[in-house]
């Protein structure tokens, strides 16, 4: 019901509704996925590390699923691989952080990237791994898996960054909400993620 508002003629209602999906996609893309300008940029791995693996997670209250995003880049700042994955939502954000970290290490091992710095904005789990501190019991078994899998890497380190400096992995995680359960790209990213890579590197 409309009160004191203009109404469309009946003949134009179908034309108006046909444009709604396009408008939704346009506004969703701008509101959720638009990269923000920032001073701090993603930095390539040092000479001691061949690759840098960034990862993140996303979780929405209205959904029973959670999302994980991972991107691997080399010393030349080139994307070597990217992953966007949807999983069953765990019981807590802490568990999801641990699962995202474990998936990043697993992804690197699957591709043979065994000399990597793992970088994410999941402060709770990053600090626990970096300081070799056993975190809360709810994620203890997952952390044991992470430590065990980390032993298969030749060289590794864990680094915490702010969310705005982890935009590619975060965008990949958000993307999983509306795509197939698991998507992997080799030496490439999907077009809607490319602009986040470009934000990290203006000369890209």
Percent range of helical residues: 25-40%
**Distance between termini?**
51 Å
Q: Indicate the overall shape.
A: globular
Class by SSE composition: alpha/beta
- Which sequence of strands runs across the widest sheet? 5-4-1-2-3-6
Characterize the biggest β-sheet. 6 strands, mixed
Radius of gyration: 20 Å
As residue ranges, the low-confidence spans are: 1-8, 16-34
CATH architecture: 2-Layer Sandwich
Text of the CATH class: Alpha Beta
Provide the domain count: 1
CATH superfamily: Ribonuclease H-like superfamily/Ribonuclease H
Mean pLDDT: 81
Total number of β-strand segments?
6
Order of helices and strands: HHEEEHEHHEHEH
Classify the beta-strand content into a percent band: 15-25%
Number of alpha- plus pi-helical segments: 7
Oligomer: single chain
What does this structure look like?
A six-stranded mixed beta sheet has the order 5-4-1-2-3-6, sandwiched between helices. Strand 2 (65-74) and strand 3 (79-88) form a beta hairpin. The longest helix is centred in the middle third of the chain and has 19 residues, at 93-111. By secondary structure, it is α/β, with parallel strands linked by helices. The protein is globular and about 40 Å long. Mean pLDDT is 81; it is low at 1-8 and 16-34. It has helices at 13-18, 20-33, 93-111, 123-130, 140-150, 167-175, 191-200; strands spanning 51-59, 65-74, 79-88, 115-120, 155-160, 182-186. The chain has a single domain (51-200), classed as Nucleotidyltransferase, domain 5 (2-Layer Sandwich).
